[in-house]
Amino acid sequence: MGISVFNKIKDFGSELFDLVLGAEHPKVYYHPQGKIKDILDKLPQLKQKYRPTPWLTNSHVHLLYFDLIRKQTIKLAYDRIDQLTMSDGGITAIAWYGYNLPPDTPTVVIMHTITGTPESMRELVRDLNRYTGWRIALCLRRGHAGLPMPVPQISLFGSTSDLKEQLNHIQSLFPASDLYAVGSSAGTGLLVRYLGEQGEDTPFKAAFAMCPGYNTEIGFKNVHPFYSKMMTKKLFKYFIYPYQNTWSQIASLERVLSATNLEEFEKEYFEMAGFEDYETYCKSINPIYVFENIKIPLMILNAEDDPVCSIKNLEPYKEPIQQMSNVAVVTTKKGSHCAFYEGWRSTSWAARLMADYFLIEHNK
């Protein structure tokens, strides 16, 4: 009797602690008869509660911990960084980790965040290598990490033509390596746009999109005002001010510099992205226009408390996604923006999910 009472008290205490943490089972949206169901059934994480690190239950604290502490303290030395000249003379790069693994080792290709650099992406690079044992190729977009900009062109969401050239470089070095893809935040826009444009014509075996904003034409409207203002200042700092001579002939420069938030910036910078008007820019980069043409397995992860890529952005696409055989969306109550720390040691729940998903796909 005593043991029974003790167990009930223990269970009640555990449930109460989970309630305080906001620990819940992930929600999964997918086609119940779809091809991706077999993969979902083999992922134990999706059947267990996601328990955020106890002191990171507030979405803002969670995000600031990720952005201001973890990004600054993770130590990782890349094996090499290849600077690539694109067909139009523009410069991109690929940062490698695990470069000297056997040639037939799979490679995870990462598409980074809106101001991503090799330094800011170290934790995800390290975790994916650690969990899978695979090679990591971080594809750097134009203007990132202080790359030279001989051609006056940048894009918040990248360029699918640049990505194709980067993939050609990766495949030329490792023709026997299976490729898997991860997009993080703004990098999901590039990933999903590429997958939708290519359909089945892609070397990727499977892909994972972490914290997408979905429709790029409305996503920035839902960014928390503090982060929208802060990130706009970062765009000026990294992509405008260091390249003043590059942008001197751009007629819209003053309008871009007058932007006070991400929505205003995105609506004015289209000329810097190489387009004549905003409508043409949107038709060329918005992943939503080609989303339903994705043919490979794609898992998407969003946190319901994300202050940057709001969960509201998902709502119009829940039904279409559940009609697609190869796509699943996972949402967690907590996780903030691209953080998803769990346990007392603050390890990444998301990186573990990505790795297990890829390993299951690879071992089918």
From TrEMBL:
Residues annotated as catalytic: 185, 306, 337
InterPro entries per record: AB_hydrolase_1 (IPR000073), AB_hydrolase_4_sf (IPR050960), AB_hydrolase_fold (IPR029058), ABHD4 (IPR012020)
GO-annotated molecular function: monoacylglycerol lipase activity; short-chain carboxylesterase activity
Keyword Hydrolase annotated: yes
A Pfam family it matches: Abhydrolase_1
UniProtKB keywords: Hydrolase
Gene3D superfamilies to which the protein is assigned, alphabetical: alpha/beta hydrolase
The keyword Hydrolase is annotated on this UniProt entry: yes
Annotated ranges, domain AB hydrolase-1: 106-343
UniProt similarity note: Belongs to the AB hydrolase superfamily. AB hydrolase 4 family.
Protein name (record): Alpha/beta hydrolase
Organism per entry: Acinetobacter baumannii
